[in-house]
């Protein structure tokens, strides 16, 4: 029997005055998954997460974390959850280490005798051991994000909720967070990862949910969701115009010649991939490469919403 979802909502909605920030979504985050929660700024991602964690009250619908209804079951669920929501907030004149010690002291389940070991391990895991004695106000934005992640890792967690965890990180830091997320999932945690950095999500997520204007447009295993976007065929050839005509005759849609005129591509739209090579050969069109790929996550988002994706912030 499969495990129940770590996060589940039914008709979850939030109204701010006349604005419908979240519009009746049914979220399902499978246990043990890395769930990429995607959408441009203003799509409702952070509002949804705040409702999940009991930080704001839904206008309608219901939510559950680790099988506990929220917010009534918060006392049972939240000790099993680690979270980094929006920007991390710490005491600016305390060091990174002392901030974590204070947070750990607020946890009634934490043994004071082993506090230092937990703080040391959390700092080491996010690469802040050498900055442990530096005051938080002197941290860079990326270091602040790392400390926020460290705070979520002070105790073993069944569910980790990260809202834009790579905000402010350089490419090396982003790769390290990506590796950390994979390790946490391998250790058995469920990770709900909110972001608008699609290329990063595509490298770590097992499942995705895409929001836009408060609505959940698609969700499910990453491969299945991207499969809804169809497949693309690309042919490398010195005769792109002739190859394009062959593809169009097969029913390949949106056929375009590459700007460098070294090939041609189009959407298969139900055309069997194995039919392409014989048709090119039969028409006497030479080619040196033929590739069939699924749509990339960003391409699928544009196709799904008809709008560009805010990848800057």
Structure description:
Strand 13 (253-257) and strand 14 (263-267) form a beta hairpin. By secondary structure, the chain is α/β, with parallel strands linked by helices. It has a six-stranded mixed β-sheet, sandwiched between helices. Strands 1, 2, 3, 5 and 6 form a five-stranded antiparallel β-sheet that branches. The longest helix has 16 residues, at 171-186. The protein is elongated and about 75 Å long. Helices cover 32% and strands 27% of the residues.
Task: Please describe the structure with a list of short key phrases separated by commas or semicolons.
5-stranded antiparallel sheet, 6-stranded mixed sheet, disordered C terminus, 313 residues, 2 domains, alpha/beta, Alpha-Beta Plaits, Rossmann fold
Multimer state? single chain
Count of the separate structural domains: 2
Let me know the largest β-sheet: 6 strands, mixed
Low-confidence stretches are: 307-313
Q: How are helices and strands ordered from N to C?
A: EEEEHEEHEHHHEHEHEEHEHEEHEH
Cα-atom Rg, whole angstroms? 23 Å
Overall number of strands:
15
Helical stretch tally: 11
Overall residue-averaged pLDDT value: 87
The CATH class of the largest domain is identified as: Alpha Beta
> What is the CA-CA span between the terminal residues?
41 Å
Shape: elongated
